[in-house]
User: What shape does this take?
Amino acid sequence: MRDKSVLICSLMLVVCCVLFMTLEARGNWDFVLWFRGCKLAALLLVGASVSTATLLFQTISRNHILTPSIMGFDALFALILTLAVFTIGAAGYNHLPPEVVFFVNLVLLVGAALLLFGTLLGQHRADLMRMVLTGIIFGVLFRSLTSFVVRMIDPSEFATIQVSSYARFNYIELNLLWLSAVLTTATLLLCWRMRRQLDVLGLGYEMATNLGEPVARRQKQALVLVAVLVAVSTALVGPVAFLGLLVVSIARLIAPNETHAMLIPLSALIAGIVLVGGQTILERVLGMSTPLAVVIDFVGGFVFLALLLRRGWT
Assistant: This one.
């Protein structure tokens, strides 16, 4: 059953990738394959990063609804972007080397993630509830500050913020793609090595402690991995708020068991299908009438409400 579900998703992803690379391809094939190949690599990279980060975050928080994005991570990215445009102007921001923007975003987002989710490292459920409330409050604060700063920005410069606030897959900086691939691959390998320890953490603090697992240290390690994965994907293409919740929820629905050895690859495959298949439909069928991130957030928002109404805040 395990091999069957993973095999079906793998075949579906291969079909989506072939269609993305070849559908309506005209002109020089060398250019077409290189141009589309870079976008395909970015889609697969972001899908694996966001899905794995969401799965790990839900494991250490023991909550199938919470995600880093819901906890205010995307709002922080928008605030950093808005402050940068407000400080140096849209022209100055657009002339910054992409590598500088990437590293600044990466450092700030990783540091902020560790601060925002730091209370998760406590040993009692009260610490988790405080983390939840802290994340929600900070999310509202970041959005309010962003709205305040936007009102002081020249309207002609607001377009830079509006464009960069959504995930963008049409143009990918090659240098950033290689750098993101190295960081993401190394982090994903560490996540895979922790898969058995994550299974134990999912049993709860008391059970994991009785089984000899150092819960606080494992939570800290997982939290660092989550922060790096989300920060890299967000710095590379921008935020996709509900992607992780959507694909991990589907993976839990079709997976025969809740082990991370099953959920990590299955979630990544489903994320690849959603991103590559969705981008193929939007580009080749709908003529890019709307950004892919908007569609994903729309569908993911309904999934979030359905999970909330069905299970409650657990």
